[in-house]
Design a protein that fits this description.
CATH class of the largest domain: Alpha Beta
Number of domains: 2
Largest sheet: 5 strands, parallel
Mean pLDDT: 97
Distance between the termini: 49 Å
Helix content: 25-40%
CATH architecture of the largest domain: 3-Layer(aba) Sandwich
Strand content: 15-25%
Low-confidence stretches: none
Oligomer: single chain
Number of strands: 8
């Protein structure tokens, strides 16, 4: 479906018949991680909707909007095979019609980490997700934990704006060597892909060192140095509170180690839970 009106009409039909609905928002270029979101949606709801919209407002001026992979036919077939019942694939003009002048800003959670390195990114995310949640009116919306700062931002936005949809986090899906699945992995050359496998391994080593009692700052500095030695250029490597993203000085509360690195011209993100001790 291409229009908000058609989407809403179908969802109303389903809900009038007593069916619960889950939404999986995506930008397309789907992989097994996206299909895991569909499976998680089907575990909670009777019907799953996926959206595909490469949202221009969350890309910076020097980012990869123009080359972001677009393959709607293949994505639609994969979604149908996974049990998705409806694909919402609007044009930019449908999402941002002439005269569009509003945006959503979530303070605090978006100030650091990816927010500091991608100015305006989370305003674009919060705005388009708020629109999708209002357009679909689903009972649940599924978001991958790989984009952990995004997940917390969307959850905060939905709570603050009294959007009834429950925001559900779904664990990261990884390749056999540990690399988190991402549409941007397709940009990596064979040599870059081999180096990228060291990204999760380095974060796991830092997580294990912190669990074992190493000083947090020392473990993070060692991870930063190891990434650089492998030819991966970090934007940040940080340990943060798992709920607030405030810097974590201990493991008294659940925490996450979060990082973003550049492999050649490709930027990858990842994070790992670090349990309390």
């Amino acid at each position: 479906m291409r229009t908000v009106a058609a989407l809403r009409a179908r969802v109303r039909e389903w809900q009038a018949a007593g069916h619960s609905v889950a939404l999986v928002p995506t930008m397309g270029a789907l992989h097994a991680g996206h299909l895991a979101l569909v499976a998680a949606g089907l575990a909670r709801a009777d019907r799953v909707i996926a959206s595909i919209f490469v949202n221009p407002t969350q890309f910076g001026p020097n980012e990869d909007f123009s080359r972001y992979p677009r393959r709607e036919a293949e994505d639609a077939a994969a979604l149908a095979g996974a049990g998705c019942r409806l694909l919402f694939a609007p044009a930019v003009e449908e999402m941002y019609p002439a005269g569009f002048a509003s945006s959503v800003h979530v303070s605090g959670l978006t100030a650091e980490l990816d927010g500091a390195h991608r100015p305006g990114h989370f305003d674009g995310v919060a705005t388009v997700v708020a629109k999708l949640l209002n357009q679909a009116g689903a009972d649940f919306a599924m978001f991958g934990e790989k984009d952990y700062q995004q997940l917390l931002t969307v959850r905060r936005m939905a709570a603050d704006l009294d959007i009834a949809t429950e925001i559900v986090g779904v664990p990261t899906v990884r390749e056999a060597d540990g690399l988190a699945l991402s549409s941007r992995n397709a940009y990596l050359s064979a040599e870059e892909r081999a180096r990228a496998a060291l990204f999760p391994k380095t974060l796991m080593a830092a997580r294990d060192a912190i669990r074992a009692g190493s000083a947090i700052e020392a473990a993070l500095a060692e991870a930063d140095a190891a990434l650089r030695a492998a030819g991966l250029v970090p934007d940040y490597v940080a340990l943060r509170d798992a709920e607030t993203l405030a810097p974590a000085a201990s493991l008294e509360r659940p925490a996450r180690i979060l990082s973003a690195v550049r492999v050649g011209s490709t930027r990858l993100i990842d994070n790992l839970a670090v349990e309390t001790v």
